[in-house]
Amino acid sequence: MHSTLSGLIAAGITAAMATAAVAQQTVVTWMHLESDPPVVAWMEGVEAAFEARNPDVDVQMQYVANEAFKARLTTMLQSDERPDVFYTWAGGVMRAQADAGVLQDISATVQDGWGETISAGALSAYDYNGAVHGVPWEVNQVGFWYNKGIFAEVGIDPESIRTWDDLLATVRTLHDAGVTPITTGGADKWPLHFYWTHLAIRIGGREAFQAAINSQGDGFAADPFIQAGERFAELIALDPFQDGFLGMTFPESAGYFGDGNAAMQLQGSWNYLTQRTNSVSGAGLSDDQLGWFPFPVVDGGAGAPTDTLGGINGWLVTDGAPPETVAFLRFLTNLDNQTEAARLGVHIPVTIGAAEALENPFFRLHAENIARSDYHQIFYDQDLGPSVGRVVNDVSTDLAAGLLTPQEAARQVQEAWEFETM
Amino acid sequence: MVDTADSGTPARPGLLASWHRTWRRANQRSAFGERYTTAIVFLIPTVTLFTLFVILPMGEAALYSVYRWNGYGELSTFVGTRNYAFLLNNGAFRSALINTGLIILVSLAIQLPLALWMALILAERIRGAVLFRAIFFLPYILAEVATGLIWKFVYDGRYGLVAGLYGWFGAEPPFLLADRELAIYAVMIVVVWKYFGFHMMIYIAGLQAISHEVVEAARIDGASWWQTAWRIKVPLLAPVIRLSVFFSVLGALQLFDLVWALTRGGPANATHTVVTYLYNFGITRMSIGFGSAVGVVLFIICVVFAFGYRRSLMRHD
């Protein structure tokens, strides 16, 4: 009885001390968009490991869903409740945040040996006016995922799909066989903007994009962008998507693909996991059933076949965040942690040497493609900033719905761009 | 008389006399002054709150609306009326205005008559009336977002209730929320379903306030149920109906969460209301200047309607 009582008191004192210790801890809030359970589990592991080494720091993960995050971020960043470190796709959105002074310049720490450990190409996407406000942690590539079983059944050789015309022929063949050729999440709009923008990359190459953002010539109303709309319209004329595609979100469409209901899906590297998580069984298509081929080239296009579209995603540090935030970010992106991320197939890391641990054959392939690419274009809807980017998503959706002509689509993007840069 | 009226108490000779004495004795802190002090003390919180949360935001929105501003930092790029010019030429905004108009029309032409009809039946003491009142009121209690998600499932072309019904008859199910023509009608069905119970309850309360003697007198005079309803109850209910029309129109002008959960304004911007348009084109695009212009337009529409309606139709209520 006596020992129980003293035990209780001892436990009480320990608890009180623990509370006191918590009170002295520095809190680092980490805002992320990750909902895939295996990825979240890995992130929690990194967080625990960092806290174990730094008992005076308490890293708190905050999850916000993708679309909600984009909507709330502006207000959140200007409030006292802003996270210390948050997810980013870099590009124009990051530049707007940096201009507003809500980000912290961490160049000093990055130059202190940290930057050398990260792929220079990826890191340069985070350089803005000579300052660095965060670091990348992954890259990804957009391309066509396909269902090997369906392709074999219908008799399509994926190797034969090299040009846009080949793709159109494939869509016709699949249609004739009574299969839904492609699935897409039209309600989210951005899955459709991959078509218009990747066609623009193939047709106009880096030069057309550079000319447009420098407001040279006709900008986004120039020929390559009109042609991108025309080629996209050729695909739309074949009725390539599942019924009701304009009402389906990206996760739903990924599940639709994972369930084997459609032959192809144009998506980024992450779809490898998303098509599993959102399938009815939760298993999706296995590595044996899943195939991938790059976005086809367009005959006569100025873009190189090796040009890639995708993301260079990572983390940004906010103004006023404690120094422990940077220490945590450095820990998160170190070789050990990123090697583990690669091994688990969480993403394609940009920390030098980590990608070698990639076991996932698709991620390995994407990593090689991006390494070989001279022009890795960040998603237009991020790179052009939140306002013009969403216009690109809008016009891509309107093209898919047959509401706009290719000329009107290109003109609308150009008008938005002119307004943004006036 | 003036004094008593101002003091807010009924005229009583004794009080009046003492009042006058107080007033005459008055030095700097006269009763007159005290009354002003009271008024000021009571006004300060209201005026402060009204200024802080109504007048200032309105002024700010009007100011932002002539700038291109992404919500960060200083207002720097003055664009004059360009936000408004873009707005008026924007197809998605026109369709948002039309959709809002359609929702108002459906609210007035279908929702309110339905609510009135149900109220006329359920206000009477019949078996099960209370149960049915509760059932029809239930959708109103349901959170808007939950309603949106439930109906999204109902309308789903593959797994939903509608798809099931079509499948039963062996027909190809439609994808209502993915069809640019039909989606807005699907939204309107949900709006009527969700809010008619609220108006029904208002009407029932109004009907119960109508004196029994009037209704009974009509019955004794041989008026049918229909005649009693149309010639006695509805005219006596007129102030309540005018109020519910007011609520209904303002509610339709401000409709947001239901549509957002159901369609997010899609497919391809076909089901935006003015407010979802504001959210999508203003907030999520970090175009606070443009969003403010939408807000100003919506505000003007609301104010014109509210004042116009109150001054004309609700003048005597």
Task: Describe the protein in words.
The complex is a heterodimer of chains A (422) and B (317). Chain A is α/β, with parallel strands linked by helices. Chain A folds into 2 domains: 25-140 and 310-377, D-Maltodextrin-Binding Protein, domain 2 (3-Layer(aba) Sandwich); 143-309 and 378-421, D-Maltodextrin-Binding Protein, domain 2. In chain A, 51% of the residues lie in helices and 15% in strands. Chain A is built from 18 helices and 13 strands. Chain A has helices at residues 2-24, 37-53, 66-77, 91-99, 107-114, 120-124, 148-154, 164-176, 190-213, 223-237, 250-258, 271-277, 323-332, 335-344, 361-372, 380-383, 385-400, 406-421, and strands at residues 26-32, 57-63, 85-88, 127-128, 131-132, 134-141, 143-147, 180-182, 262-267, 290-293, 308-317, 348-349, 376-378. In chain A, strands 1, 2, 3, 6, 11, 12 and 13 form a 7-stranded mixed β-sheet that branches. Chain A has a 4-stranded mixed β-sheet with strand order 8-9-7-10. A two-stranded antiparallel sheet of chain A has the order 4-5. Chain B is mainly α. Chain B has 14 helices and 2 strands. Chain B has helices spanning 2-7, 13-25, 31-64, 82-89, 91-122, 129-141, 144-155, 161-168, 183-209, 212-220, 225-253, 257-262, 274-283, 288-312, and strands spanning 67-68, 77-78. Chain B has a two-stranded antiparallel sheet. In chain B, a hairpin with an 8-residue loop joins strand 1 and strand 2. Mean pLDDT of chain B is 88; it is low at 1-11. Classes of the chains: A alpha/beta (422), B mainly alpha (317). The A-B interface holds A 67, 70-71, 74-75, 77-78, 93, 96-97, 99-102, 186-187, 189, 243-248, 385-387, 390, 394, 397-398, 400-401, 403, 419-420, 422 and B 68, 70-73, 77, 79, 82, 86, 92, 157-158, 175, 177-180, 183, 263-264, 266-269, 279, 283-288.
